[in-house]
Amino acid sequence: MQAFKPSSAVARYFDLAILRGVGQIMFQGHAGTGVCFLAGIALASPIMLLGAVLGALIGPMTARVAGFDKDQIEQGLFGFNSTLVGLATLFFLKPAGLTFTLLVLGCIASTFITWLAMRFLPFPAYTGPFVVSTWILLVIAHAIAGNSLDVSPASEAVAPGGFIEQVLRGEAEVMLGANVVTGILFLVGIALSDVWHAGMALLGSIVGTAMADYHGDPTQAISIGIYGYNAALAAMAMFLKRKSLTLPILAALIATGMTEFFPKSLGVPALTGPFVAASWLMLAVIWLEDRLFGEARWFSRP
To answer: 263: phi > 0 → left, psi -120 to 50 → alpha, else beta; which?
Structure first.
């Protein structure tokens, strides 16, 4: 019995800290969700799977060495931002010594930013640490190597399929993979943890994709799900805050508008920045609403 304790502890740590960290990318502290997400990433891009796995390992390991809260580590709260940094690094940059150096440093930085945000922000940081770390990482890469490490952009051919395929690619684009089956795997993974959350992810991508269609946004961007993923995340975040349909739909609309704004106005990849900004805006409005009208609601209750 003694001989099996170390391996058992390693397996438990992998389950709780690593796979849950991957699942937390879409708010699910569930190992099965993490497995589905990794399968979806592998289907979209094996090299991005390598980045995701490295990030999923580096985040919790950094948190553990730094002495961060053990329960938070096991919930996966120090894994999801670093996982996203890892896969995004190998999405934007070619595999090279500098790339992997920046990947490791970016994952470590995102873990410390996550810890700081938990301590000092009055609201959830969501994937903000991933966005900040990746933007800085890309700036450093370009300052050192110019454009030599940049991954060539994908073909401009419009992805086949109709509205449903666009919506499913929107789910996949949460982790930078424009693949219908990847989107299905992501939804299945979320549903393993919570069916309502999967429903909100689907609703958000539907709203975002429909809004982009209505606005006449670029066909190529719509076809690969660019306007679905931030909307999906924002809808889920608001449903977690308050069980409702109105708030998730409104958050999805705002996130989509911000997705339209980011590339044109800032010249950087939007990543999940629109989701974070839209969710923070919604949380601020909810906070203000509660302060202004919370007491009146109690008195008006029948």
So the answer is: alpha
